[in-house]
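TASK: fixed-backbone design
INPUT:
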């Protein structure tokens, strides 16, 4: 027997999904994030048979996207949400948060890659700068040598 009203179960599911999203936001591997999210949906919304589809179909069920990019689709059992719009809303909101986590991760990876490229270019510029400085000092030394030799020849 279930002694709790249906709202309690919904609240519990939304709390579990919230905690799942919070934990996923700490991950740094896109595939692992997606896998854990799908596993979480299947654990908390039993019977949905949720699956990840990398390339969304025209009739996609839940599209995982941000304003800038489509990441994939979450499919589920055909009639799972027929009488449960609350769980559908939870899954859709979770998918939206998943998209934001993935987008932020990709932005962090891009920023890290660009930072590394800039550091490498900066090191290269420092090497060239040292070469040019060394060349200028050598030119100065050679000019002084030439002046000394000209002086000796003049004497």
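OUTPUT:
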């Amino acid at each position: 027997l279930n002694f709790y009203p249906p709202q309690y179960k919904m609240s519990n599911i939304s709390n579990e999904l919230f905690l799942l999203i919070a934990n996923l936001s700490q991950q740094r591997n896109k595939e692992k994030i997606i896998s854990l999210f799908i596993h979480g949906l299947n654990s908390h919304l039993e019977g949905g048979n949720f699956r990840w589809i990398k390339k969304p179909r025209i009739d996609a069920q839940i599209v995982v996207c941000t304003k800038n990019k489509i990441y994939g689709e979450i499919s589920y059992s055909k009639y799972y949400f027929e009488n449960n719009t609350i769980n559908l809303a939870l899954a859709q909101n979770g998918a939206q948060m998943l998209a934001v986590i993935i987008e932020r991760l990709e932005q962090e990876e891009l920023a890290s890659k660009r930072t590394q490229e800039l550091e490498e270019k900066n090191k290269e510029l420092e090497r060239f700068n040292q070469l040019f400085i060394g060349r200028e000092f050598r030119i100065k030394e050679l000019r002084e040598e030439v002046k000394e030799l000209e002086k000796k020849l003049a004497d």
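COMMENT: Helices lie at 6-24, 30-44, 85-154.
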